[in-house]
Write a structure and sequence with these properties.
- This protein has 16 helices and 31 strands.
- The protein is an alpha/beta fold.
- It folds into three domains: 3-438, ANL, N-terminal domain (Rossmann fold), CATH 3.40.50.12780; 445-534, ANL, C-terminal domain (GMP Synthetase, Chain A, domain 3, 2-Layer Sandwich), CATH 3.30.300; 539-602, Histidine-containing Protein, Chain: A (2-Layer Sandwich), CATH 3.30.1340.
- The strands form nine sheets. Strands 18, 19, 20, 21, 22 and 23 form a six-stranded antiparallel β-sheet that branches. Strands 13-14-15-16-17 form a five-stranded mixed β-sheet. A four-stranded mixed β-sheet has the order 2-1-12-11, with helices on both faces.
- Helix 14 (499-507) links the parallel strand 27 (482-491) and strand 28.
- Helix 1 (3-23) packs across helix 7 and helix 15 packs across helix 16.
Length: 603
């Protein structure tokens, strides 16, 4: 498509998005928009098991009635606009009702399922949560047990309400029945600038950090993704990401609601359920999935599953996001499902979802993450200059109605903006046709003696080695260079990997000598976040422990020492070493050479 034609099409896309947002300026009305297409269409299909022969089905009209009934329940329990409703539960029908009603009539505060009890308490206190929704006692994952009695340390928390995971809609023991006459949010609740969601961003531990998202933010995000996917009535969208993630909530679920499409939820555990992965293509066949979405790690896992005789002809588009999909992972997936079908989505919590996507009617440019979504603008800050067109590599900046309303704690927002543009913290460039390329994360850059190394090049080289399922490169603390590259890989099912052979393979494909990994570790399972991104902070801790042990072995051969690394909010990466007191001074001196904090404790 010529640049002139692309500009005209983009103007038309933005105009269409504005028209929908003028009609539906708040979350409830956007959900109602899709329901109005056909109140009897299936809005949510919940699979209680991977191959559930009789899934729980909720029609669009019933779902809107559930939202109305849940809004009334919240009001009767003293919850209204400005009050936070926290949710610690996996995807299912009752959770969806609780989530979208809380967003429509109050402020939803979804929690990462891997949060520690301490992190949950800190988040609840920071949000001033009134109600916490959680699964019932004894449910898989022990989530209720994790928060039982937590109100003692959260003064604002009035009660914990349980949600069934079996497809029913009930709050505690009270079964909700859909209202026949819809209760819409009050004019105050429907204001475009009202904060309707506080989404935690970052890791699973540490001080509270939650992005405040408004009606305008989340509706702009959902409409932009709906248009990029060409979401339409009759689509059946696989919802595999959790609702505490912007990808699952706004790019996936809310855009499906707005389009009048059907959401298929593959069990509460979703892609963490081995049976879902094992039967993935059979689920696609049985549910006639048209649009799928998986993070790159899950995409790689699915690529290992033979399609067999499954009829997957219903699929027309597959989105991947949460992190940039390595070309090798995409190649493996396309070997199972050939064609121009994979669409990279790039976004962030602070942008309420997708920042860029490749529209359904354009081919994905190799290596790119697509074009700015409807009503979004992207620029690159490089060399102190802001580039709106083709650019050198620099920090990606974004702006538009999707940009969040700041953090719950304003102190977390220092440095978040540059002249009105939201800073992403990602490195990238703008291509000749306006497409965006993400080349790395500023904080993930490995700095070896002043030499900046992009870990993506190391990871891509490793993924070409037979048997490598996942690869991650991080900076290993070094007393001389500050950091040296360390490569972690995990094998495909049934495969074994020889680190020495892998090292030779990778070295032959990395031209920059400083970028060649000094150490390679083969680990059975890669640490992942709840949405499937590789959790590099844990890998940095493992690398720090290894670096510390290496120094200890050189300074005190044969010494038995306990070594553990943790990431702390105030001090960053901390290595704690326990050893006999006679060696402590020597160890403090040696470990002091590493670019981290070392605590040496006498035993």
């Amino acid at each position: 498509m010529a640049i002139h034609d692309m500009k005209i099409e983009r103007e038309a896309l933005d105009a269409r998005a504005r028209a929908i947002l003028d009609e539906c300026p708040d979350v409830f009305r956007l959900v109602a928009r899709g329901a109005a297409v056909d109140p009897e269409h299936e809005a949510i299909v919940y699979l209680r098991t991977a191959l559930d022969p009789a899934p729980t089905v909720t029609t669009a009209g019933s779902f809107l009635g559930f939202l109305s009934a849940a809004g009334r329940w919240l009001s009767e329990n003293g919850v209204g606009p400005g009050d936070a409703v926290s949710i610690l539960a996996p995807n299912c029908t009752a959770v969806s009702v609780a989530y979208w009603s809380a967003m429509s009539f109050a402020t939803v505060h979804p929690l990462n399922l891997l949060f520690s009890r301490e992190a949950i308490a800190a988040q609840l206190a920071a949000a001033r949560a009134k109600i916490l929704f959680a699964p019932p006692p004894g449910a898989p994952g022990g989530l209720f047990e994790k928060v039982e009695g937590i109100a003692l340390s959260v003064p604002t928390l009035e009660r914990i309400v349980t949600l069934p995971l079996d497809g029913r809609v009930a709050f505690d023991d009270e079964t909700l029945k859909p209202d026949s006459a819809f209760r819409e949010p009050s004019p105050a609740a429907a204001l475009p600038d009202r904060v309707v969601a506080m989404l935690p961003t970052g890791g699973t531990t540490g001080a509270p950090k939650a992005a405040r998202l408004t009606n305008r933010n989340v509706t702009a995000s959902a409409v932009a993704s709906m248009l990029a996917f060409d979401g339409r009535p009759g689509d059946r969208v696989l919802i595999a990401l959790p609702l505490f993630h912007v990808g699952g909530a706004f790019v996936g679920a809310l855009s499906a609601f707005a389009a009048g499409a059907t959401q298929v939820v593959p069990t509460a555990a979703s892609l963490r359920n081995p049976e879902v992965i094992k039967n993935f293509w059979r689920i696609v066949e049985a549910q006639r999935i048209t649009i799928g979405a998986l993070v790159p790690t899950a995409l790689g896992a699915v690529a290992e599953i033979p399609v067999g005789g499954a009829d997957i002809s219903s699929l027309r588009l597959f989105a991947t996001g949460a992190s940039v999909c390595p070309p090798e992972i995409e190649r493996r997936f396309l070997a199972a499902w050939p064609g121009d079908c994979v669409r990279q989505v790039y976004g962030m919590t602070e942008f309420a979802g997708a920042t860029t996507q490749t529209p359904h009617n354009l081919r994905q440019k190799p290596g790119s993450v697509g074009f700015p979504v409807a009503l979004a603008e992207v620029a690159v800050l490089a060399g102190g200059q802001l580039h709106r067109g083709p650019s050198p590599t620099g920090e990606i900046l974004v702006r538009g109605p999707h940009v969040f309303a700041g953090y719950a704690d304003p102190r977390h927002g220092a440095g978040s903006f540059h002249d009105g543009w939201l800073r992403s913290g990602d490195l990238g460039r703008i291509g000749a046709d306006g497409e965006i390329y993400v080349t790395g994360r500023i904080k993930d850059i490995i700095i070896r003696g002043g030499h900046n190394i992009d870990p993506a090049g190391i990871e891509e080289a490793a993924l070409g080695f037979p048997g490598v399922a996942l690869a991650a490169a991080i900076g290993r603390p070094d007393p001389y260079s500050g950091e040296t590259p360390m490569l972690f890989v995990s094998p495909s099912p049934g495969a074994s990997i020889d680190p020495a052979a892998l090292g030779q393979f990778v070295e032959g494909r990395i031209m920059e000598t400083p970028a060649r990994p000094r150490a390679i570790a083969v680990i059975p399972e890669m640490p992942l976040t709840p949405v499937g991104k590789i959790f590099k902070p844990r890998l940095r801790e493992i690398a720090a422990e290894e670096a510390a042990r290496e120094l200890i072995a050189a300074a005190a051969p044969g010494l038995a020492a306990e070594v553990r690394a943790d990431t702390e909010i105030e001090r960053g990466l901390v290595v704690t070493v326990k050893a006999v007191s006679s060696h402590c001074e020597t160890l403090r001196a040696e470990l002091g050479k590493l670019p981290l904090t070392a605590d040496v404790i006498a035993t």
